[in-house]
Amino acid sequence: MMDLSREFYEQIGKPALEAAVPVLSGRYAAGLVGCGSECFGFDDEISADHDYGPGFCVWLTKRDYERYGQRLKEVYAGLPDTFLGMKVKKMPERAGIFEIEEFYRMLYIPNTNPQNWMEWLRLPEEKLALATNGQVFEDPLGEFTRIRERLLAGYPRDLRLKKWPCTPASWGSPGSTIIREGKARGDGNLLLRPFGVLRLGPLADLPFK
């Protein structure tokens, strides 16, 4: 679905947006990041039963969002409802037009530039995973990518070591959902893979994606 979303953006979305507001060419980022199995690369025929289809996000600076955000939202809403036989995603919390900082706040990342371990501690690992998954199709201005790269650097090492023992204790309720989903797919290795990305990925020594 990520590849299809990129095609939809490049073939349909980008030409429509830049025709409506030509001055924004080269001034925004586009991609697909956040909630949804497709952003983690876990989408399959079972996950196609809900909220499934191509779509993309456009991220604007605060100034450009205030000037052109509403117009671009109208353009996105007017894009075709289907693309290559798939229903286009038009849920405003998952795809569409966003101001950069507000997008991260929507994912419960109130501070996009944490400076010390206390500020990092206030950023839950599953929210960091949501904020740094998916793909950025293009970002000529670079502002969205700069924030993304800061968050991808992950927790300070001392904080990761403190969080590791606590994380498995929180697996009870959501873990049961993951097990049920894994059984439906007939793949025992799949059982904790998505949950591990959400909760353990941000705690790894390597940058998480």
Total helices: the number is: 10
How widely separated are the two ends?
17 Å
Spatial strand arrangement across the major sheet: 5-2-1-6
The average pLDDT is: 83
Q: Proportion of β residues? A: 5-15%
Radius of gyration: 18 Å
Structural class: alpha+beta
Globular, elongated, flat, extended or rod-shaped: what is the shape?
Answer: flat
Order of helices and strands: HEHEHEEEHHHEHHHH
Quaternary status: single chain
The total tally of domains equals 1
Uncertain stretches of 5 or more adjacent residues: 189-199
Helical content stands at 40-55%
How do the helices and strands line up, and which of them pair or pack?
Blueprint: H1 2-20, E1 29-32, H2 37-40, E2 57-60, H3 62-77, E3 82-83, E4 86-87, E5 96-99, H4 100-106, H5 117-121, H6 125-132, E6 135-138, H7 143-152, H8 157-163, H9 172-185, H10 193-199
Parallel strand pairs: 2-5
Antiparallel strand pairs: 1-2, 1-6, 3-4
Helix pairs in contact: 1-3
Task: Give a structural overview.
The chain is of the alpha+beta class. It has one domain. Helix content is 46%, strand content 10%. The protein contains ten helices and six strands, in the order αβαβαβββαααβαααα. The chain has a four-stranded mixed beta sheet with strand order 5-2-1-6, with helices on both faces. A two-stranded antiparallel ribbon has the order 3-4. β3 and β4 form a beta hairpin. The longest helix is centred in the first third of the chain and has 19 residues. The protein is flat, with a radius of gyration of 18 Å. The two termini are 17 Å apart.
